[in-house]
Specification:
about 100 residues; mainly alpha; about 0% strand
């Protein structure tokens, strides 16, 4: 119990925890949000909210990029901070405008 409550950690534990977090959050965003929008693009193309006044189609394209490709880059560990920023920006803008 003493070791469990310790604030010290090994480098391997940190790396494994980072991998698990990247996999879980990246796959959840990609599967639950991104693939649905990609598969139903025709439905969202004209009715998707347009908070930045880019047009409904371009807004959906940017959202799909953020929720699918940025999430997959996050899972793969490629440009992780930039990919997380892209995915996070989408979530935050969705919360602000709805």
């Amino acid at each position: 119990m003493k070791k469990f409550l310790s604030t010290q950690y090994s480098e391997n534990a940190f790396n494994v925890a980072s991998l698990v977090l990247r996999l879980v959050f990246g796959l959840l965003i990609c599967i639950n949000h991104g693939f649905d929008k990609m598969l139903h693009f025709g439905k969202y193309e004209y009715t998707f909210p347009n908070p930045f006044h880019l047009g409904h189609r371009w807004t959906v394209v940017l959202v799909i990029f953020a929720e699918v490709f940025c999430a997959l880059m996050l899972v793969l560990g490629f440009v992780t901070r930039l990919a997380a920023t892209g995915a996070d920006h989408r979530v935050c803008s969705d919360r602000l405008h709805h």
